[in-house]
Amino acid sequence: MRFNIAYRVLSLLLLFxxxxxxxxxxxxxxxxxxxxxxxxxxxxxxxxxxxxxxxAITQLDSVYLxxxxxxxxxxxxxxxxxxxxxxQITDASGNDLKFKKIDYNKWVIYNARSLxxxxxxxxxxxxxxxxxxxxxxxxxxxxxxSLFLLNLFGVAGYLDGKKDTPYRLTVHKPTFLYGxxxxxxxxxxxTTDIFTAENYFNLHDKPILYAIADTASTMVFNTKxxxxxxxxxxxxxxxxILETSxxxxxxxxxxxxxxxxxxxxxxxxIAENDADALSGYGALxxxxxxxxxxxxxxxEVLLQEIRDIVAHEFLHIVTPLSLHSEYIHGFDFYNPEMxxxxxxxxxxxxxxxxxVQVRYGLQSPLEFLGVMKSKMDDAELYNLDIPMTxxxxxxxxxxxxxxxxxxxKGALIGMALDLKLRILSDGKKGLVDLMSQLSAEFGSDTFFxxxxxxxLIEKHTDPxxxxxxxxxxxxxxxxxxEELLAEAGVLYIEETTQNQIGFGQLPISFDPDLDKLYIxxxxxxxxxxxxxxxxxxxxxxxxxxxxxxxxxxxxLFGDFYSSVKEGDKLKMEVLRLDKxxxxxxxxxxxxxxxxxxxxxNTLLIDNDLTAQQQRVYNGWLNL
Length: 623
Fold this sequence. Notes:
Blueprint: E1 15-20, E2 23-28, E3 35-45, E4 48-54, E5 62-66, E6 84-90, E7 99-103, E8 106-110, E9 117-123, E10 141-143, E11 147-150, E12 158-159, E13 167-172, E14 178-181, E15 184-188, E16 192-197, H1 200-204, E17 208-211, E18 215-220, E19 223-231, H2 238-255, E20 264-272, H3 275-280, E21 282-285, E22 289-295, H4 299-315, H5 326-329, H6 342-359, H7 365-379, H8 388-393, H9 409-424, H10 431-441, H11 453-460, H12 463-474, H13 481-487, E23 490-500, E24 508-511, E25 516-519, H14 527-532, E26 539-543, E27 546-547, H15 553-563, E28 569-577, E29 583-591, E30 595-605, H16 611-621
Parallel strand pairs: 3-13, 19-20, 20-22
Antiparallel strand pairs: 1-2, 3-4, 4-9, 5-8, 5-12, 6-9, 7-8, 10-11, 11-17, 13-16, 14-17, 15-16, 18-19, 21-22, 23-30, 24-25, 26-27, 26-28, 28-29
């Protein structure tokens, strides 16, 4: 998806001082083989900052200025050019050049031989008012006095034909902010940082987090792992994130044969006390770094989420950042073509991120099977008649609502393929061996043809694997869970009915104004929750007399489920809007009772395995 650094910029700019509003600023001299960006973070106003772009000299009469429509790893249309404001384009004497806006992301600049400077302001995406164009927060931008998240594709563009020309980035910043990034660094001072990138792809691939310094680092195998953390209410710190990340990176290194495929890896973490953080959290992968965006929640829950997410994002170094097709290798930011193999790039990665944890002791086999069960449940919420290859090719438009299924059905395809390979080899070889063989054939500097992936997998495995891919990936047949899992000594029960106690599916979000959790949907709540009287928009105050907060909710509900029995008293206190629109306390109560529940996709470990089942099971989970 992004290229490794092949060379460093050899020539440094000649700089000369220029007077700006009583301060000395460096005014770049234009060069024919260097794009120069200057960010003025120290001039933040109305959640905007100014950018000066001095593009490499062009000999063309007209050129296009382009901002990304789509960026790798997001699989959705972002239109980052819409955040550009007050665009000015001038020659070296400060005279305006004529230009015309083509669409959200593209401008044509006339008399381009005289082009010297492109000046503009940029808005951040976190405050984007267009709800239906909401940008995934880890792939967005945020600007405030205490925090700048700079996914550089959200603030910087390129001239068509100059995308492969090196970039030099100068950042003028407040003295109390420190910039963490995987970018090459020329110099740092209290007020100015200077970075380089070999081309636009390399620039876009290395985000920067400016915040009050909270950093930590360690070595994991051959890799220096660095963490920079911003936590709005100090719920998390860099050392804690590093500790939980290092444990799973150690597991990944063991899984990959005793090493990690990076000399340096930078984790940029943002945790905010924000309602949108509960629904928009996650991460975006890069070659040598990742951006994590998290809600400030109960710490142990957060750290487990971070461990899972870091495992997934780091494993993207294997695919698609290294092992990828032509559509990723030569990614077109303005008019991209989607691969048929998101199941491979995202699904295999998601499955492996959990597999490494059970194989190296960070999860128990039952916990791992619980994760797979939840993915089976969630996959059933999507359209099961759409082949994954068809969905992947059309993910930007026709099937964009089906995209998240790559993390569920895609991961289950990964598990099924892994089991199939273990069964064929009597437990000796699995998915890790296939990925190693493919990576040896196609490194980060080359690519496979998108329509040839299945043939390549067959070449390294068995004709029956090609049939498997045709039926379950190119086709939409239900995955044969019962058959495959049985060979590994795991019982699969598609559906059963059980009596249970519980609240049912209780969709909860967070109201930062009242500092309370609330119910945003009661479609699938249980009969017990209905008897209790829970309603949509109820703000939760207490559970059985204990104050209920965002920090202790997981513990309180966990304690309830671990100790409750039928006939116990159940009490909750909530805030509810009255007819005058005022919040009033309301006490809810009922008795705990069980009710019949249809349970899908039960997974149980058989206690009486044959020798062959034991070999497959042990090979699969490294036991």
